[in-house]
Amino acid sequence: MDAQRQSMLRKFQKELNAGTVSLVLLAVLERSPEPMYGYEIAKGMSWGMGAGVPVKHGTLYPVLRSMEGNGLLSSRVEPSVSGPPRKYYSITDHGRAVLSDWRTAWACTRDFVDATLEGDGG
Amino acid sequence: MDAQRQSMLRKFQKELNAGTVSLVLLAVLERSPEPMYGYEIAKGMSWGMGAGVPVKHGTLYPVLRSMEGNGLLSSRVEPSVSGPPRKYYSITDHGRAVLSDWRTAWACTRDFVDATLEGDGG
Predict the structure, then answer these.
(1) How far apart are CA A12 and CA A50, in angstroms?
(2) Whole-angstrom distance, CA of residue A88 vs CA of residue A94
(3) Do A106 and B16 touch (CB under 8 A)?
């Protein structure tokens, strides 16, 4: 793949991730029986968002903070034996309601994109 | 759905569309046997991108121009009997190569998101 195709692919993947990272993050926290801290959440996500644009841990923290600001997550800080205190995040009831809306929107957009790519949509 | 959920949903859908509109647009043009003008392309897309955030025709034109600037599309202007001249877009060979890369990236991200939502991923 030449450099220009590579650059277009990175741009595309970045835009795709911008929409999906928050969805995946909320789903991971909904499923977790325990509050999770940033690094734990990032670990589970970093392999999956693909195409040479891994989700860098540093990009998750602003998303977590913004979601907390919007009331989708709550957090508490706990001391850690091995380093600085950790901020543990849980999904709120409001976050669960928003996740449910987002799941529906995701399924709708996904099906439309797939139909178009297969030549049935549009 | 309360106003805050509605607002979160619109934000999410907008971010999702930012990544997918260019993919869908390129796929629509690849499939078309004839060059298409902006309004024709928009018509086929506007119903699908869902959740109260339709793809406004005005948002497509900058995407078309940027894709032409990146060599993914070529265009020619033709007079129209019913109004101002129309700009017809075709996909270039480079655009086909980029679309092929984007299809792969899309499938990878889609499967990862779906797996996470179903509780198998992450």
Answers:
(1) 11
(2) 18
(3) yes
Q: How distant is the Cα of A78 from the closest Cα of chain B, in angstroms? A: 24
Chain-chain contact of B12 with A19 (C-beta, under 8 angstroms)? yes
The rounded distance, in Å, linking the Cα atoms of B14 and A18 is: 10
**What tokens does A115 get?**
């139909």
Say what the pTM is. 0.87
Label residue A55 by pLDDT band (50, 70, 90): low
Length of chain B: 122
Q: Which domains does chain B have, with CATH numbers?
A: 3-117 (1.10.10.10)
Strands A36-37 and B36-37: unpaired
Q: What is the ipTM metric for this complex?
A: 0.88
Edge-first strand order for the sheet with A36-37 is: A36-37, A83-91, A73-80
A109 touches chain B (CB under 8 A): yes
User: Is residue B6 scored above 80 in pLDDT?
Assistant: yes
CA–CA distances in Å: residue A31 to residues A44, B56, B117, B118: 12, 36, 9, 10
- For residue B77, give how far its alpha carbon lies from the nearest alpha carbon of chain A (Å): 23
